[in-house]
């Protein structure tokens, strides 16, 4: 696997902003079947080995999962406060749910589940997200080895990355684009 | 004008996060004519007097403006790091450009332009955003009284607001919805 050229500036931004826990939060836009955009914060969990793919976790019952099943295109907007940089990563989204039969993805799903804290794992046993709240949320501690059906990985495979550096005048902005042969090119563009 | 019920928790979040300059940055999702989502950070500029409308500024030449002309629906995702809260505000977007003839909106556009710093104003005289960078960006200081054609206001008129409080276990989440009579209701929902 060849490291995509936007990986180095993104790794630098993650490193320089590492003192801020919320620098690992980014906002993911998807589209529903009516053509309306939706947008929410998600937590970056790393790059699966030997890929340029960004990993997140999600509840299968959440609205974004049904949106992605129907339209897998998304754009992630990621702002780094310390260094005043923005990355916009657009590409296909992939849900790894309990029906994913390919064994490396199932293994990745299982490993990610096992790496979570009990508190994070508990959220996947709560009542249906977004439904009216009728009582206490369950606080059962789920099995730490086997993920429940609600637990999914969410993978973003970027095809276009827009990197804006707000610090300094004038600002700098770069557009990374993947062509049909999976080759990345970069161009400096006006901010 | 009746203050929408989500205004109080949003005002509280803005106040409690006021030490962080980037707490006024939020991410706006729009959809292009091909049905793909786009997402970028924008800076909240306040509520125009006697409205529940959120104000931002934008360059008319930016891609989001042409997307909004064709599909005015958007969702803003706003995360507050200190208090660990997220607001998702969905609704219609309105562009106030130089062709807007209604005088209160033109006056608002002029006043906002006059309130900006020279550095902010200069960005509206830079070469076309997103085009390949060919040379130095112009550094002319534009007329501080009359906005150039590129300067637009961007107004978001929310119709649905989702407020998630991540602090504490379990988390709290509220959904505010506007009905056809412009009346707001609120419901507690599962996080």
From TrEMBL, chains A, B:
Region described as Disordered: 99-143
GO molecular function: FMN binding
Taxonomic superkingdom: Bacteria
Family annotation (Gene3D superfamilies): Electron Transport, Fmn-binding Protein, Chain A (2.30.110.10)
Compositionally biased residues, Polar residues: 99-125
Domain Pyridoxamine 5'-phosphate oxidase Alr4036 family FMN-binding per the UniProt entry, residue ranges: 4-96
Record-given protein name: Pyridoxamine 5'-phosphate oxidase-like protein
């Amino acid at each position: 696997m060849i490291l995509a050229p936007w990986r180095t500036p993104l790794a630098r931004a993650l490193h320089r902003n590492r003192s801020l826990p919320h620098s690992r939060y980014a906002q993911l836009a998807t589209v529903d079947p009516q053509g309306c955009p939706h947008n929410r914060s998600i937590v970056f969990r790393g790059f699966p080995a030997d890929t340029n793919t960004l990993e997140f976790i999600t509840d299968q019952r959440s609205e974004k999962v049904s949106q992605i099943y129907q339209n897998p295109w998304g754009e992630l907007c990621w702002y780094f406060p310390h260094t005043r940089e923005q990355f916009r990563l657009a590409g296909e989204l992939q849900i790894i749910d309990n029906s994913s039969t390919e064994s490396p993805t199932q293994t990745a799903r299982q490993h990610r589940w096992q790496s979570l804290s009990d508190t994070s794992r508990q959220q996947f046993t709560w009542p249906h997200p977004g439904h009216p709240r009728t009582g206490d949320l369950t606080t059962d501690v789920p099995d730490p080895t086997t993920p429940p059906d609600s637990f999914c990985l969410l993978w973003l495979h970027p095809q276009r990355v827009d990197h804006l550096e707000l610090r300094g005048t004038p600002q700098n902005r770069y557009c990374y684009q993947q062509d049909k042969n999976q080759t990345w090119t970069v161009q400096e563009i006006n901010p």
